[in-house]
Amino acid sequence: MEYFLTEQQKEIQKLARTIAEEKVLPVRAELDEKEEFPWEIMKVLADTDLFGVYIPEEYGGLGGGVFDLCLVVEELSRVCSGVAVTYAASGLGTFTLLQYGTEEQKQKYLPDIASGRKLAAFGLTEANAGSDAGGIEMTATRTSGGYILNGTKQFITNGGDAEVYTVIALTDKAKGPRGASAFLVDKDTPGFTFGRKEKKLGIRASSTRELVFEDCFIPEENLIGREGIGFILTMKLLDRSRPGLGAQAVGLAQGALEAAVDYARQRIQFGHPIISLQAVQMMLADMAMQVEAARALVYAAARTIDSGAKDFTQESAMSKVFASDTAMRVTTDAMQVFGGVGYMRDYPIEKMFRDAKITQIYEGANQVLRTEIAFQLRKKKMAPA
Which of 179, 273, 313, 380 has the fewest CB neighbours in a 10 Å radius? Predict the structure, then answer.
């Protein structure tokens, strides 16, 4: 379908696809098998300025928005979601700074992030705070010249490899979520360490670690915004970032669809390629429609955000839920098309199937986001038919 990309967006899309096919594809199985962080690919993305697609030009970026980021994430995910989420998580760790940071904070951090010299990460999830983001317990205690951070964050993408972290902690425990604040933390800050690298079902090339803070001093100039608005900033961040996760799911589903079509053309059963069988044709047709519908919704949500709209919670949640459910359905059906060989690691569908599941879980479990969509429907006055 024609999505009326600008010339710059077409170049971004083309470049990301070239990198995915030439640099990622030859090593994706090895990265997955070894659970190896894709530093060499991150360097290629940095050298081609793709880390700066969503960052303003005055900070070294290309001046695009969420939609431009989605284009890159989709193309990388078409080949390897583990690589794609490593790239995308740096944007997740940057959005709050980009939207609400001071000029001094932006000047200090954004040029290095835009150039890819430093990766970013976002620290919200804790052992008792997953989908219930308001359940965080990590504290930031006021002291002379700054704050003392104590506590842990769990399942943090790019944890241990990123250089810059946006972390949410309680500056006033008595207020619960209304007492949360956002902080910028450098990797080499004393008192800030990391747990072991988690062993995961999918997206194995990305690193997932615990962040550990033990009497970690953070200067007051590293507070983003003001005290007590950390939870609000988090919700706004997730609204802005979810189409990127939707793009990950779309790219993954697109890659699975293409692999299934190619295999169905080659696989001979009953004297004919299985793509000539009506049962297989119906599956492939449904997969293609689902992928295109998911892409349209993700692109529309991203463009709505970039347009400057003030309220896009519903659209953002819809794009994530629909696209991730699509990725799970399409990879499942693609494995069915492959049959027994699809279950083997010699073929890419086994990996895509494993990678797809997490898209329904992180950045808000789909069941929780469905309740958010329903809440938005309840509070909005619907136009009469």
Answer: 380
DSSP state of 219: E
Residue 37 in contact with residue 209, Cβ under 8 Å? Answer: no
Least confident of 3-7, 93-97, 106-110, 173-177: 173-177
Task: Choose among 121, 130, 186, 124: nearest CA to 159.
Answer: 121
Whether the CB-CB separation of 334 and 280 falls below 8 Å is answered with: no
Total residue count of the chain as it appears in this document: 385
For residue 331, count other CB atoms closer than 10 A to its CB: 30
Answer whether residue 2 is part of any domain.
no
Q: What is the DSSP letter of 380?
A: S
DSSP string for 99-126: HH--HHHHHHHHHHHHHTSS-EEEE--B
Whole-angstrom distance, CA of residue 80 vs CA of residue 101: 32
For residue 101, report the phi and psi dihedrals to the nearest 5 degrees: -75, 160
> Are 260 and 359 members of one domain?
yes
CATH number of 16's domain = 1.10.540.10
Task: Report residue 250 as tokens.
Answer: 């779309």
Residues serving a catalytic function are 363
Q: Indicate the pTM of the whole model.
A: 0.96
Q: Are residues 296 and 263 in the same domain?
A: yes
Q: Which 8-state DSSP code applies to residue 2?
A: -
Distance CA 213, CA 153 (A): 9
- Cβ 105 vs Cβ 97: under 8 Å: yes
Is residue 207 located within the same domain as residue 265? no
Other C-beta atoms lying within 10 Å of the C-beta of residue 372: 18
Query: And the tokens for 24?
Result: 């990622």
Three-state DSSP class for 234? Answer: helix
pLDDT digits (tens, 9 = 90+) for 287-345: 999 999 999 999 999 999 999 999 999 999 999 999 999 999 999 999 999 999 999 99
Asked if residue 292 and residue 222 are part of one domain, the reply reads no
Question: Residue 22 belongs to what domain range?
Answer: 7-115
